Amino acid sequence: MITLTNIGKTFPGTRRRPAVTALDDVSLTVERGQVMGVVGPSGSGKSTLARIVNLLERPTRGTVTVDGVELTALSAGQLNSARRGIGMIFQQFNLLDSRTALANVELPLELAGVGRAERRARATELLQRVGLGDKLGSHPAQLSGGQRQRVAIARALAPRPRVLLCDEATSALDPVSTASVLTLLRDLTDELDLTTVLITHEMDVVKRACDHVTLLEAGRVVDAGALSDVVRRPLSPLATRLLPHPQAPVGEPVVEVTVGGAGHDAVLTELIRRYDVQVAVVAGSVETLGDQRFGRLQLRLDGAPEQVRPALEFLAAADPGGRDPGSEDTHDLDDRALRALEEAVA
């Protein structure tokens, strides 16, 4: 649905300030129906990337393709038409204070020449969908921050876009409103078959709402993938940010495993069934990533050396990262193991 290929963006310098390269050879793909989180520190190029997706900012080099159309090859008139398929939500809401919630949502339809009755019906439907059916006549000053962002979401959806870009959309909200808005965005993505990109500096936003994530640093992609894959990569810069490593007691000989997600082998269950060893949970942590639970366990295997060694070799063979037995191995375990972990660390 969205493909950025070898994107570079350099802002020219002045006499007082040198040129700045905001993005450097960035390539990424967001498939239809995905919620992609783009994270990184301030100055990493996140917001520039968001504006390049709909060409509010034109790249210095590279191509942008959305829904099969190469936006970077369009004329100004063609680009204006293509942008109707891309909704955008900002941190500061950008609502018109003089207009009611209903009139704010109607605005993009009004600018597109949609008739009064049709745009009124569409705006009413959307405000009801975002939980503001009783606020049609309220002005922004009469609404909370979370309610104003819901109006902004309804407005972005009014032209029936296929893509939704959210640039720090929850940064100005309190935790309760943030959780509510993220749930709404996730639900709308699924219901309306949207492709959603969330630009954020907060890992909690990624954990709550995203199924894929891209990490930018200094204008370059340094890590990317599905959350369920990223947390299992031993050397992933994102893995420990999404799922922290537990701290075992100093000197405790442990093997570390990652549990959770769908469709993975029940390695721990098979370990206990096959080998005559005692398995103890020494430490662990649990996170909900998207709609799946994941955890990291640090296990101690007790038994005679001739029993423990084959068990460690089994774990090493099952490790998708191919790491040495006895080190911080990463494995796929079943949901029963995750429930045991949650009880152990409760």
TrEMBL record:
<protein>
    <submittedName>
        <fullName>Methionine import ATP-binding protein MetN</fullName>
    </submittedName>
</protein>
<keyword id="KW-0813">Transport</keyword>
<dbReference type="InterPro" id="IPR027417">
    <property type="entry name" value="P-loop_NTPase"/>
</dbReference>
<keyword id="KW-0067">ATP-binding</keyword>
<keyword id="KW-1003">Cell membrane</keyword>
<dbReference type="GO" id="GO:0005524">
    <property type="term" value="F:ATP binding"/>
</dbReference>
<dbReference type="InterPro" id="IPR018449">
    <property type="entry name" value="NIL_domain"/>
</dbReference>
<keyword id="KW-0472">Membrane</keyword>
<keyword id="KW-1278">Translocase</keyword>
<dbReference type="InterPro" id="IPR050086">
    <property type="entry name" value="MetN_ABC_transporter-like"/>
</dbReference>
<dbReference type="InterPro" id="IPR045865">
    <property type="entry name" value="ACT-like_dom_sf"/>
</dbReference>
<dbReference type="Pfam" id="PF00005">
    <property type="entry name" value="ABC_tran"/>
</dbReference>
<keyword id="KW-0547">Nucleotide-binding</keyword>
<dbReference type="Pfam" id="PF09383">
    <property type="entry name" value="NIL"/>
</dbReference>
<dbReference type="InterPro" id="IPR003593">
    <property type="entry name" value="AAA+_ATPase"/>
</dbReference>
<dbReference type="InterPro" id="IPR017871">
    <property type="entry name" value="ABC_transporter-like_CS"/>
</dbReference>
<feature type="domain" description="ABC transporter">
    <location>
        <begin position="2"/>
        <end position="243"/>
    </location>
</feature>
<dbReference type="InterPro" id="IPR003439">
    <property type="entry name" value="ABC_transporter-like_ATP-bd"/>
</dbReference>
<keyword id="KW-0029">Amino-acid transport</keyword>
